[in-house]
């Protein structure tokens, strides 16, 4: 048996069936993250995963693999897990999971294509920033170039992913530059959804500056396909959602109105 201490999941996966694949975080070095500090990292055995599935609701359509980075268990095991899901939950149309640029770099394009065919349909990946100095300071463990390379590989494999980014991460006075660099990085690949999170670090950016960062992002994103821009995560100081490029003006107007409100002080 295994112990599960905490399960983190994206709000969109609230209605999915959770299938534990790892506990703790294998990497556990990101300077901004305390989610798994003090928690032992381990892989759930295939036998235990099969036991979970045996008791799973037969008619479920969505499964979310839980753990900081379930893709870190490697191709062979993920493929076996997908086969077990197919066997026990035959109506499941979408398996989703958190992943990291580091773990995706271990998979070949062919392997990712096979996993897509086996039912892996959506990854949530922390890109965080489009600036190498910020990624280094945050000990993220990947560079902007590596992130773009892995994202393009996922595009070729037709494996959809959501791009998680953090505003406020570059510190005071750096927001516009961070937003422009992050938009430039995202413009190099296709992503289903851009999910923003708000973070306070070192010399924190003021509420207004963080909103200007969101606005600058919106002004600079040039998606190659319709892409959802989503600031509904609970950490955000403004909650909105729309599809780029169609809703760009509407989204920008909402942020602009918030910026001009004198009452804003975060
Ligand atoms: S890889 Fe994810 S869970 Fe692990 S420390 Fe970094 S942000 Fe936290």
Outline of this structure?
The protein has 266 residues and is α/β, with parallel strands linked by helices. Helices cover 35% and strands 19% of the residues. Helix 1 packs parallel to helix 2, helix 2 packs parallel to helix 4 (109-117) and helix 7 packs parallel to helix 8.
Question: Which structural traits does this protein have?
Answer:
alpha/beta, 9 helices, disordered C terminus, eight-stranded mixed sheet, 10 strands, binds iron/sulfur cluster, 266 residues, 19% strand
Topology:
Elements: E1 17-20, E2 22-23, E3 42-43, H1 46-54, E4 62-66, H2 75-88, E5 94-99, H3 101-104, H4 109-117, E6 120-128, H5 132-137, H6 144-156, E7 160-167, H7 175-186, E8 193-198, H8 207-220, E9 227-230, E10 241-244, H9 248-260
Parallel strand pairs: 1-4, 4-5, 5-6, 6-7, 7-8, 8-9
Antiparallel strand pairs: 2-3, 9-10
Helix pairs in contact: 1-2, 2-4, 7-8, 8-9
The protein binds iron/sulfur cluster.
What does this protein structure show overall?
Helices cover 35% and strands 19% of the residues. The chain is an alpha/beta fold and 266 residues long. The strands form 2 sheets. It has an 8-stranded mixed β-sheet with strand order 1-4-5-6-7-8-9-10. A two-stranded antiparallel ribbon has the order 2-3. The longest helix has 14 residues, at 75-88. The model is unreliable at 262-266 (pLDDT under 50).
